[in-house]
Specification:
It is a single chain. By secondary structure, this protein is of the alpha+beta class. It folds into 2 domains: 141 residues, Sandwich (Immunoglobulin-like), CATH 2.60.40.420; 122 residues, Immunoglobulin-like (Sandwich). Helix content is 23%, strand content 36%. The chain has a 16-stranded mixed β-sheet that branches. A hairpin with a 3-residue loop joins strand 8 and strand 9. Helix 2 packs antiparallel against helix 3. The chain is globular, with a radius of gyration of 22 Å. The N terminus is likely disordered.
Length: 315
């Protein structure tokens, strides 16, 4: 069918109106999302499967993340501040190939060849600043963590492994978050308890506390890079019995290719925490604790041997 000039003009006008309406609706949606985050005084991050649903841009300063894990897997997210003007495109282009190649070798039992792939990691990766995030959170669980964010471009990722050993980050659990040069004016929350985290002294905390809803202050006395190329964090875990500490320690040993795979061992409930922060910085997290046995533990190789674990009882 051949369109005349009048018909073509009419169709073009309709298409332009539809496009403008779509752009307007998208812009209004983004504005509403940012206003909602501001009204709630927290940034909501939702995981439905292997994803992070949240806003693209936030103001700098003390920021509370409410992480709602609706999936059937344990997840967390760490924020990595990118150097210079680099962002998600460069992250995927430069980092995904060596890590995926290493995974393919490890899967075949070719450990030496897999480790050699890490020699292809770009120099800029070692300038990335670890900036905290929300600790491990079990399925159908919500966690709240508060950290201070400077302006810049951040990568949000989860690297818990699939049952086959491939990291969740390669399945879609990665997102770029921009922090603008405008302060949100927030102050740090008031804490009920303090936690000390140090590679020298380990994790220090009370031996027991009463049940209740609390805000924990996690002070990173120092920081160092471990065998998995990351630093130490702190995760809150409810355990059914003390015999599960060994299972927990082994599961968190990410340098073991068979570890850190979902699902987590039975009898463990991850309730959040604070991901890796630089030395001297402090992060906060909230949790409602019922009577039982709990541990604070870092997701590092041999956490127990390095005293990066603290058992305590809630009565």
């Amino acid at each position: 069918m051949k369109l005349n000039k009048k018909s073509s003009l009419l169709i073009f006008t309709i298409l332009m109106l539809l496009a403008l309406t779509s752009c307007k609706e998208k812009k209004e949606t983004e504005i509403l999302e940012n206003e909602k985050a501001s009204e709630n005084n927290y940034i909501e991050v939702v995981t439905n499967g292997m994803d992070f649903e949240t806003v693209d841009e936030i103001k700098s300063g003390w920021t509370t993340f409410k992480y709602i894990n609706k999936s059937f897997e344990p997840h967390f997210f760490i924020l990595e501040k990118m150097p210079d003007t680099l962002g998600l495109t460069t992250y995927k282009k430069d980092l995904f190939p060596p890590f995926i190649s290493a995974f393919e070798h490890f899967e075949k039992g070719e450990m030496e060849a897999g480790m050699k792939e890490f020699e292809n990691i770009p120099e800029w990766f070692f300038k990335v600043e670890l900036a905290g995030g929300v600790g491990l959170t079990s399925k159908k669980t919500t966690s709240l963590s508060t950290i201070y964010l400077e302006p810049g471009t951040y990568i949000m990722e989860c690297y818990v492994r699939m049952p086959n050993g491939l990291g969740h980050v390669f399945m879609g659990m990665i997102k770029e978050l921009k922090v603008i040069n405008e302060s949100n004016g927030n102050k740090p929350p008031k804490s009920n308890f303090k936690i000390g985290i140090s590679s020298e002294q380990g994790i220090t905390f009370n031996d027991s506390i009463k049940s209740g809803n609390y805000t924990f202050e996690a002070k990173f006395e120092d920081q160092k890079q471990y065998e998995h190329l990351m630093g130490h964090d702190v995760n809150l875990v409810k355990i059914e019995n003390d015999s599960l500490v060994t299972d927990l320690n082994n599961w968190l040993n990410i340098v073991d290719f068979n570890a850190f795979r979902s699902p987590e061992p039975e009898g463990l409930l991850f309730l959040g925490g604070v991901e890796d922060l630089p030395a001297g910085q402090t992060g906060y997290f909230e949790a409602t604790l019922e009577k039982g046995n709990f541990v604070l533990i870092s997701e590092i190789p041999n956490a127990v041997g390095r005293k990066m674990i603290k058992r305590f009882t809630v009565y």
